[in-house]
Amino acid sequence: MSDMTLIQSAVLGIVEGITEYLPISSTGHLLLAQKLMGIGQTAGTQEASEAYAVCIQAGAILAVAGLYFRRLRGVIEGGLGKNPEGLKLGINMILAFLPAAVIGLTLEKWIKQNLFGGGHYGLWPVVAAWFVGGVAILLIERRRKAFRQDSTTGISVSAITWKMALLIGSVQVLAMWPGVSRSLATILGGLWAGLSLVAAVEFSFLLGLITLSAATALDTLKYGHEILAHYGWQTPLLGVVVSFISAALAIKWLVAYLQKHPLSCFGYYRIALAIGVAAFLLLGY
Asked: Which tens digits make up the pLDDT trace of 44-78?
C-alpha cells in the first residue's frame, strides 16, 4: 500500500533535483521532506521510501549528462583511444570513485541502520552533519578570502593528477554520513587538492555521474520490486522527470552564481537549517 501521492512524489523530485548538486545534502533534505510528509512511516514502507529517494537521482544524473555532454563525449572518445585528455579525465573519475565504492559496499548496512532518518538516532546525525559542514564552508571561505583567491584561482579539471583524484575520492567518502553532502565533500576535496572553485564544482558534477549512477543502479536492483509494489511505476517516473528538470536549473544557477560569489551562503544556510531542525526535534516533532 502506497503512502505517497503524485504531488508528494513531485515535491521529492524538486527537493532531489535542487539539492543534489548544491553543497547542502540532498539525502538530508529528502529525509526531512519524507518525515514532514509522513512518507516511509507506515509498516513495511521505510526501506522502499529510502530506496525511492536514491532511485529518483536518475533524473539529476541525466541532467548532468546533458549539460556536460561534451566532457562526457571526450571521456568516451578517450576510452576508444581518440582523445588523450578525455582518457585522463575518465581514469581520474574512476580513481576518485573507488574509495566510496569500497567503503560504501563495506559499511552500507551499518550506515542505513544507524545514520538514516529511520535508524537508531533519527535525524540527529543529519543535523550534526549540516552544522559541521556549514562551519567547514565558512572556515574554507575565510581562508580563501585571506589569500585573495577567486573562483578561478587554482588548477583546471584537465590538470588533475591521479593523486589529486584519489584525494578527492577519499574526501567523498565522508558524504556517506547523511547530511554531509557529496557535492560539498568533493568540492572541498577539490579545493584541498589545489583546484579552482569552478574546476572543483565541475569535477564534482562529473564524479557524480559515476557515484550516483552506481548507487541508483544498486538500490534499483536490490529494492526495485519493493518500490514498484508500494508506489507503482507512475510515482517513481514522475519523481525522476521532476528531478531532471529541477537539477538542470539548479546546476546552471550554481555555475553562474559561483563565478562571482563564494560558497559562504551555503554555509550559513546549513547552520541555520541545523539549528531550526534541532529545535523542532527537541520540541518533539
From this structure: 677 788 888 889 999 999 999 999 999 999 999 99
Q: Where are the alpha helices (DSSP H) in 68-150?
A: 69-79, 84-114, 124-146
Of the candidates 194, 204, 199, 22, the one whose C-alpha atom is nearest the C-alpha of residue 96 is: 204
C-alpha cell belonging to residue 220: 534499483
**Is the Cβ–Cβ distance between 87 and 78 less than 8 Å?**
yes
Q: Measured between alpha carbons, how far is residue 284 from residues 42, 122, 130, 277, 279 in Å?
A: 19, 12, 20, 11, 9
Which residues are within 8 A (CB) of 248 and not within 5 positions of it... i.e. 6 or more apart? 17, 63, 66, 67
Each residue's pLDDT tens digit, 197-231: 999 999 999 999 999 999 999 888 988 888 888 88
* Nearest to 96, CA basis, from 220, 218, 216, 205: 205
Parse the chain into domains and list their residue ranges.
6-282
Question: CA-to-CA distance for 41 and 49, rounded, in angstroms?
Answer: 9
Q: What CA–CA distance (Å, rounded) separates 28 from 14?
A: 14
| CB within 8 Å of 264: residues ≥ 6 apart | 137, 138, 141
Contacts of 199 (CB under 8 A, 6+ apart): 154, 155, 156, 157, 160, 190
Q: Do residues 59 and 244 lie in contact, with contact meaning Cβ atoms separated by under 8 Å?
A: yes
